[in-house]
């Protein structure tokens, strides 16, 4: 039974003080009768004192209006704020589908004044990720800076960075086709995809740059570079895709956390490979042909 002791305004628990509303939860094998509750004793003490002011013992019924009511068996708090947690288990559907339905239903709910709604657990992990945008942008900026220092110009770094959005477009298309929402793991997959794509592009450009110094014409250097790097790039892409394919098909509990990461990489890696082998050599030829003609 829960006993509410009313003696004024305010809220508290398990402590009898004047001018407060106290919610007391009494646990006993046999429920207390109202007469026994009001007969509970209380010894008056001054604030911070160990010894009673005058040793006076009061009955609960003398200082409070006692009434029985219903309430929760326990009170949960997060950051000193009272919360009511609703937990659930997903069965027969993916967490992303259930999370989308829950968010759509909660948007139609009008909360009373003073109430807020937040998500936790794996649903919060699945819905987070907006803060990783700056990580992706920082990765691109650092890539351009490092390449600019290495090549001592912005031409090749900008060519390399220009093909990266094509792989990201392929990843977004894969997420759209599978109705996968954006999440933290999606952004991690995109960052991983950008790293793989940038590495492939850097290796190709570095190889092509060496051939003209040996007297190879520009067009032949680009052709030889793309042909020589075809097998290593295919091996790298196929190994990565083979390792991530089981995650994309995982329907077990917890698999929905890593599934978006695998879908992002699996969708973007083939497009990135084609962009590195076709778009990048073409762009490289256009830019350096103009520079050759100009000189």
What would you say this structure looks like, in words?
- With 295 residues, this protein is mostly helical.
- It is 57% helix and 9% strand.
- The strands form three sheets. Strands 2-1-5 form a three-stranded antiparallel beta sheet. It has a two-stranded antiparallel sheet with strand order 3-4. The chain has a two-stranded antiparallel ribbon with strand order 6-7.
- Helix 7 (164-177) packs antiparallel against helix 8.
- The relative contact order is 0.09.
- The model is unreliable at 1-19 and 47-53 (pLDDT under 50).
Task: Name a few traits of the molecule.
mainly alpha, single chain, three-stranded antiparallel β-sheet, disordered N terminus, 11 helices, two-stranded antiparallel sheet, 295 residues, elongated
Shape: elongated
Q: Helical stretch count?
A: 11
Radius of gyration: 33 Å
Terminal Cα span: 93 Å
Would you count the extended β strands for me? 7
Stretches with pLDDT under 50, minimum 5 residues: 1-19, 47-53
- Return the string of H and E elements: EEHEEHEEEHHHHHHHHH
The strands making up the biggest β-sheet line up spatially as 2-1-5
Largest sheet: 3 strands, antiparallel
Oligomer: single chain
Helix proportion: 55-70%
**Structural class category:** mainly alpha
Which band does the percent of strand residues land in?
5-15%
Write a short abstract of this structure:
The strands form 3 sheets. The protein has a 3-stranded antiparallel sheet with strand order 2-1-5.
């Amino acid at each position: 039974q829960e006993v509410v002791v009313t003696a004024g305004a305010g809220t508290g628990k398990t402590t009898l003080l004047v001018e407060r509303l106290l919610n007391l939860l009494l646990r006993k094998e046999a429920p207390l009768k109202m007469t026994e509750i009001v007969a509970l004793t209380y010894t008056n003490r001054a604030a911070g004192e160990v010894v009673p002011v005058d040793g006076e013992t009061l009955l609960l019924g003398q200082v409070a209006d006692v009434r029985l009511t219903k309430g929760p068996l326990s009170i949960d708090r997060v950051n000193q704020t009272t919360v009511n947690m609703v937990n659930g288990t997903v069965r027969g559907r993916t967490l992303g589908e259930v999370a989308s339905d829950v968010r759509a239903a909660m948007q139609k709910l009008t909360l009373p004044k003073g109430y807020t709604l937040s998500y936790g657990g794996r649903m919060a992990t699945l819905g987070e990720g907006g803060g990783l945008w700056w990580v992706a942008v920082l990765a691109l900026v650092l890539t351009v800076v490092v390449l600019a220092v290495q090549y001592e110009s912005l031409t090749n770094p900008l060519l390399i960075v220009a093909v990266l959005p094509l792989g990201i477009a392929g990843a977004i298309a894969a997420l759209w086709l599978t109705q996968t929402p954006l999440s933290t793991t999606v952004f991690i997959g995109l960052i991983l995809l950008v790293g793989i794509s940038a590495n492939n592009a850097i290796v190709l450009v570095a190889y092509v740059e060496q051939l003209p110094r040996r007297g190879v014409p520009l067009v032949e250097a680009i052709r030889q570079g793309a042909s020589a790097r075809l097998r290593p790039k295919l091996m790298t892409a196929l190994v990565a895709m083979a390792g991530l394919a089981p995650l994309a098909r995982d329907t077990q509990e917890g698999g929905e956390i890593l599934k978006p990461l695998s879908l992002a990489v699996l969708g973007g890696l083939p497009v990135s490979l084609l962009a590195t082998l076709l778009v990048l050599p073409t762009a490289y030829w256009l830019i350096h042909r103009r520079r050759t003609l100009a000189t």
